[in-house]
């Protein structure tokens, strides 16, 4: 009897342990961590993950969305602690720092062994942005350029013709003044002094200057062209055509625009769905008005891989799914921004039919200027932001502020090139 009881107990114990083992294996799937900052792409990211899971059903992909203001601090801390996400968004200002510090993996060896991934399929400017010595470190996801959004209703109310490709800086001033309605708290134009890509970077290039030289050895902030661009901004603010720098800090200009309190605003293409949701058919877009020449800053986001990822082949499969032709079609149809894969650009044009999105594709090809970067971009941008805002807030010499930016930036660039 004792032997029988012992036998039954052993069988039951074996069944119990098998059940526990089965449950444990079900909950202990291999996990890939993904990080990015914009939840507006959640549906398209989830669709790419579903496609990845069809090939890898035993892998759990966890996605974390962190607001941009905290994203880089959190990312740097986690990666510096030898953990962090396996796959994550990378942008231009931070690329050189992460690649030269060995925080992200060189994807080129994986690409060379993979017949499915073709760098030539993507917009060259974004491939170049995330390459070092022709080797890719972040797979292109989407691109963006800057256009002039405008509120058709405010133009109609003021009896002003809509902006078009013939507009220049002079038109911003003359027509923008007509669009100001002080009684209703309406401004004509957003002369950005608190943001760079959608603001003064474009104007510097339109004036014929540059933010950083092509060889990344010299600042262009102290050039006559840069000073001309900032004099133009100051004039628009002084005339009350644009909100002041203090106003821009207190209330984001985009919020004013979506509240029908701003007639024109330069913004990147990723804003289209949000602006259209707020304004509907009142929303229009035109090319940025020209200075001496046409120019629009072009940027884009790439998917990078943690250099300490445990299974790089698996992480690479996930990146391929996130940047596949289907993923590009999904992001194009969502209207979020211009997909990085060149063959899917036309799909994006129809994502918001009432808005002429061709403006942004044309901007990339005609006068598109690459977002300025170097190894220590964020350091000289800190100087840039501090000096510009201080000059506009305190009413001190903007030319002297630009000279100080150039001085600090040139010192950083010299150190970069001597390392």
From TrEMBL:
GO terms for biological process, alphabetical: maltodextrin transmembrane transport; maltose transport
Q: What is this protein called?
A: Sugar ABC transporter substrate-binding protein
SUPFAM superfamilies in the record: Periplasmic binding protein-like II
MF terms in GO: maltose binding
Q: Which family does it belong to?
A: Belongs to the bacterial solute-binding protein 1 family.
Q: Cross-referenced PANTHER family, in alphabetical order? A: MALTOSE-BINDING PERIPLASMIC PROTEIN, MALTOSE_MALTODEXTRIN-BINDING PERIPLASMIC PROTEIN
Q: Name one Pfam family in it.
A: SBP_bac_1
Which range is the signal sequence, renumbered to this chain?
A: 1-26
Q: Which InterPro entries match?
A: SBP
Q: Which GO terms describe its cellular component?
A: ATP-binding cassette (ABC) transporter complex, substrate-binding subunit-containing
Keywords recorded for this protein, A-Z? Signal, Transport
Protein source organism: Oceanobacillus zhaokaii
């Amino acid at each position: 009897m004792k032997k029988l009881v012992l036998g039954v107990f052993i069988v039951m114990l074996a069944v119990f342990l098998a059940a526990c083992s089965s449950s444990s294996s079900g909950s202990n799937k291999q996990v890939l961590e993904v990080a990015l900052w914009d939840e507006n792409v959640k549906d398209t990211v989830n669709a790419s993950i579903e496609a990845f899971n069809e090939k890898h059903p035993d892998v759990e992909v966890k996605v974390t969305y962190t607001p941009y203001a905290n994203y880089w601090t959190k990312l740097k801390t986690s990666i510096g602690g030898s953990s962090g996400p396996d796959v994550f968004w990378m942008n231009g200002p931070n690329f050189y720092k992460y690649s030269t510090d060995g925080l992200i993996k060189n994807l080129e060896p994986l690409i060379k062994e993979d017949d499915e991934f073709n760098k030539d399929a993507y917009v060259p400017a974004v491939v170049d942005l995330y390459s070092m010595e022709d080797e890719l470190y972040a797979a292109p996801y989407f691109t963006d350029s800057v256009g002039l959004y405008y509120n058709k209703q405010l133009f109609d109310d003021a009896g002003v013709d809509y902006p078009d490709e013939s507009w220049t800086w002079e038109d911003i001033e003359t027509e923008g003044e007509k669009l100001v309605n002080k009684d209703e708290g309406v401004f004509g134009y957003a002369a950005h002094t608190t943001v760079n890509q959608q603001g003064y970077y474009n104007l510097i290039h339109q004036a014929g200057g540059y933010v950083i030289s092509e060889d990344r050895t010299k600042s262009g902030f102290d050039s006559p062209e840069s000073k001309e661009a900032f004099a133009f901004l100051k004039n628009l603010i002084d005339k009350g055509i644009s909100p002041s720098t203090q106003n821009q800090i207190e209330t984001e200009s985009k919020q004013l625009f979506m509240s029908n309190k701003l007639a024109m605003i330069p913004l990147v293409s990723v804003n289209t769905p949000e602006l259209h949701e707020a304004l509907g058919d009142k929303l229009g877009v035109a090319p940025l008005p020209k200075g001496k020449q046409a120019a629009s800053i072009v940027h884009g986001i790439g998917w990078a891989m943690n250099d300490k990822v445990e299974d790089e082949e698996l992480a690479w499969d996930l990146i391929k799914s996130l940047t596949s032709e289907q993923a590009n079609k999904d992001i194009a149809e969502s209207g979020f921004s211009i997909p990085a894969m060149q063959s899917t650009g036309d799909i994006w044009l129809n994502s918001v039919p009432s808005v002429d999105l061709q403006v942004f594709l044309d901007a990339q090809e005609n006068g598109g200027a690459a977002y300025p970067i170097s190894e220590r971009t964020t350091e000289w941008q800190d100087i840039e932001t501090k000096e510009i805002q201080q000059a506009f807030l305190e009413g001190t010499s903007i030319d002297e502020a630009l000279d100080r930016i150039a001085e600090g930036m040139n010192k950083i660039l010299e150190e970069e090139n001597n390392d």
